[in-house]
């Protein structure tokens, strides 16, 4: 197939034209550029809106490979990670542009399966696929997705608003995706079958769009980030952007039972996955301390998790961990030292997570 026949094979008939019109698409796939109406008209916002835009790129053998991800999962995750960035601003995702560079080792049906995953994610989160680009690649598949969203004007949630006295939170268990990746890399099929939630957390992450909207609507959220690069890295970003010191209580971190069980079998300290694993796509941020209980109740009414894991303090920007004596024996952190039985110590945790330009990424 030539380029245009391939694009039609991958994208035609995926989303009804009428549905795309409801998302503000005046011109989608099939012309030199897409045309959309202003977001406030198309996404149900009652006030003036600001557009929110995010882009992420995934490269074969850097972000994924065929051992741990099916083609459909690669496509799903390529869109999901962008939707998560939109959610972290309290915004509503609307449109996506998809650019892929395809090596000769991928036939048209493999790329169609990739698009199956993209559209599965798009349908779940109401995203209209409106265009993109297709090129050849010398050896490895690259997929880059740009997502647009909308948020009430002047109300986008940022990393820079945390203040002393605020409560630090996460919107779900952490470390599950990292555990799922380890499982896929190191365990046989028989063992994998008992940990389907961990595998799903890695292959089909769930962006926290509804959680982001609840936080914005609460009026109590002072800063927000997603946890794509690991909790430690993301809360450090909040601390530096806000000029505050954050304290995480190890005992308050939400720990998945399946993640803890697999960590014990694999001989991996679960706290390492929870702090440094990344790709969970839950949200982390701060709310005013006096409103934390009310925000939690609002989440419970929606059937969504919300965990207060620490607090914001004055001091030089940084992140501290209140670690139990048991925790010292389970994980390695610079500055950690054993105390007496049952003691708790506060240590400064590393600003570490996934870094594309680090020489120590696995």
Report on the structure:
- Mg(2+) 5 binds at residue 229.
- Pfam families: AIRS, AIRS_C.
- Mg(2+) 4 binds at residues 32, 85.
- It is an enzyme of class 2 (transferase).
- Catalyzes the ATP-dependent phosphorylation of thiamine-monophosphate (TMP) to form thiamine-pyrophosphate (TPP), the active form of vitamin B1.
- It is a single chain.
- The protein is of the alpha+beta class and 362 residues long.
- It has 2 domains: 3-152, 60s Ribosomal Protein L30, Chain: A (2-Layer Sandwich); 167-348, Phosphoribosyl-aminoimidazole Synthetase, Chain A, domain 2, CATH 3.90.650.
- 36% of the residues lie in helices and 24% in strands.
- It has 14 helices and 13 strands.
- The chain has helices at 3-11, 17-22, 39-42, 71-87, 108-125, 176-186, 189-192, 196-203, 209-218, 231-242, 257-266, 270-276, 292-301, 325-328, and strands spanning 25-27, 35-36, 49-59, 92-102, 128-136, 142-152, 167-170, 221-226, 245-249, 283-287, 307-313, 318-324, 344-348.
- The strands form 3 sheets. It has a 7-stranded mixed β-sheet. A 4-stranded mixed β-sheet has the order 3-6-4-5, with helices on one face.
- Helix 4 packs parallel to helix 5 (108-125) and helix 6 (176-186) crosses helix 11 (257-266).
- The longest helix has 18 residues, at 108-125.
- The protein is globular.
- The two termini are 37 Å apart.
- Residues 327-341 and 355-362 have low confidence and may be disordered.
